[in-house]
Amino acid sequence: MALHDRAGQPANPTDLINVAKLISDYYTLQPDVNIAGEAVSFGTSGHRGCAHLKSFNEMHIAAIAQALAEYRIEQNITGPCFVGMDTHALSEPALSTTLAVLCANQVHVVIQADRDYTPTPVISHAILQYNAKHKGSGQQADGVVITPSHNPPQDGGFKYNATHGGPADTAATSAIQIRANALLADGNKDVKQLSIEAAMCSEYVDEIDFAPAYIKDLSNVIDLSAIAQANLVLGADPLGGAGTRYWAMIAQHYGLHIDVVNATIDQRFSFMTLDKDGQIRMDCSSPYAMAGLLAHKDKYALAFGNDADFDRHGIVTPQGLMNPNHYLAVAIDYVIKHRPQWAESLKIGKTLVSSSMIDRVVAHNQRELAEMPVGFKWFVQGLQEQSIGFAGEESAGGIFLRRDGTTWATDKDGFILCLLAAEMTAVTGKNPAQRYTELTQQFGTPYYRRIDVAATLAQKQALLSMTTDAVTAASIAGEPITNKQTHAPGNNAAIGGLKVSTDNGWFAARPSGTENVYKIYAESFISEAHLEQLLADAQTLVNQVIA
Q1: What residues contact residue 445 under an 8 Å CB cut-off, 6+ apart?
Q2: How far apart are the first and last CA of the chain?
Q3: How many separate domains does the chain show?
Q4: Dihedral of the CA atoms 322, 334, 380, 225 (nearest 10)?
Q5: Alpha carbon of 342 to those of 75, 364, 386, 406: distances in Å?
Q6: Domain boundary among 150, 185, 209
Q7: Are 346 and 278 in contact (CB under 8 A)?
Q8: Do 393 and 456 fall within a single domain?
Q9: Which residue has the higher pLDDT, 320 or 36?
Q10: Which residue among 41, 91, 96, 149 is the active-site one?
């Protein structure tokens, strides 16, 4: 993809969405379930879509909420459903629809007071805290986060977090998706729905402030006293997300110096700089989307950015924005060395398209690696059972256990990954970028990239069902192939594609769930030129197999 000529530049009025039209389309356009793009579809991060495209409308959310209410009955989930939303324009009407349907089905819903915004990790934390307190009572809570994560302002999303606090597994989301589409096909005749006024006045809605309990508990997962004692001057840019008010509250509670460089909430996200493709996207791992914060990098020992629901992190040092893979390697190395209460048997989790620098760090620290398919749901069980100490993915998401080795949350948490960077800087005297340089001196320098390749639906399906036998090549990019994988070694689950490795590099290919492309991830520990060869050879190999 060519870099847009305005990437990293401030958004213009012509780049901004028409919020009024978007909300109107949410309520007035009716999807056709027989059109693939207009049906309910749960991907790795829930159902996402746009009201303009009839892929995220009132009928969708009503059907999903009804399907969820029925699923809760089938699973005997009788505790409250914690519901949060982010700052996207479609989140507000989607919250209203969700409440109207859940309350009509007599589901006890807990939301943020004054219908304010709630970050994803706060919902996960609340679910686990409630369920720990009510263990043995039969009253288990679950939750919903209404968010399309870092997607552009016109998008909406609905994510279900199960009683374990993390993203629901495929069995749950498939059941909800199938039932929701059946409801849609019948015109939502079987959807129970109150008016929003009746729902809010009913006995089924409680409003609380989620922030104090979450913030008070942060000291059990991060050494905040070390950060305070180091007198670090920190910056934070919430990118207009759901956790905007949290940073000032965290700073006040723990005596930290955190400057919130932009506290604006604007559903058009008009303050953003454009991403690499010219879109407004709250991607805290993109130097183009983070250009506003990067302009302040020399003012702070460390600065942070987050996406709209705060499940992702962006780490800015005076050297610039860290690549997510680089920071994960540093963070993993740090927690292994600085969490003495953690059991040595704890595994380190990563997605199989994350950097192999992590493999080298984990092996050097004599820990076991748990390599999983893409999707954070694969880490939930290990985090819940406290067999995985840290879990991370290449797209700037991560989570880890409390300092005493017990579970903190089971979904990605952008707050604690940012604060861990500050703890690391305070304790070691080196920021994460400086520490990563040391890792490259010890283990070599990796060169990593992801590209998209055009593919038909039939080609994507062929890639999805590919076996290792389909790859007959003996070498790639000048090196013998040492391993071919269609299942993740961490849990033997299908990866939905293929990964091929050599001694000094690898590539993985996966079909996109939403676009007519497949994605190639590749990494070389030799050179940028070797990476280019890996990408070219990978594309040739895959195209030969799926042609």
Answers
A1: 525
A2: 22
A3: 3
A4: -100
A5: 33, 17, 10, 9
A6: 209
A7: no
A8: no
A9: 320
A10: 149
Query: How many whole angstroms from its chain centre is CA 344?
Result: 27
3-state secondary structure of 304: strand
Residues 418 and 330 in one domain: yes
Assess whether 182 and 257 both reside in one domain. Answer: no
Provide the CA 410 distance to its chain's centre, in angstroms.
12
**d(C-alpha 469, C-alpha 485), whole Å:** 10
For 44-78, what is each residue's pLDDT tens digit?
779 999 999 999 999 999 999 999 999 999 999 99
- Known catalytic membership, residue 149: yes
Instruction: Find the CATH number of the domain harbouring 169.
Output: 3.40.120.10
Same domain for 428 and 281: yes
The residues with which 452 forms a beta bridge, in sequence order, are: 519
Letter for the amino acid at 543?
N
pTM of structure: 0.96
The model's pLDDT over 201-251, given as tens digits with 9 standing for 90+, comes to 999 999 999 999 999 999 999 999 999 999 999 999 999 999 999 999 999
The amino acid present at 70, given as its one-letter code, is E
**Same domain, residue pair 336 and 274:** yes
- Tokens 């454009």, located at residue: 274
Domain assignment present for residue 6? The answer is no
| Structural domain range at position 371 | 214-443
What's the per-residue H, E or C state across 143-203?
EEEECCCCCCCCEEEEEEECCCCCECCHHHHHHHHHHHHHHHHCCCCCCCCCCHHHHHHCC
Q: Are 242 and 148 in contact (CB under 8 A)?
A: no
Distance CA 481, CA 144 (A): 43
What the block records as the tokens of 442 is 């010890």
Residue 464 falls within a domain, yes or no?
yes
- Whether the CA torsion 147, 151, 156, 160 is positive or negative: it is negative
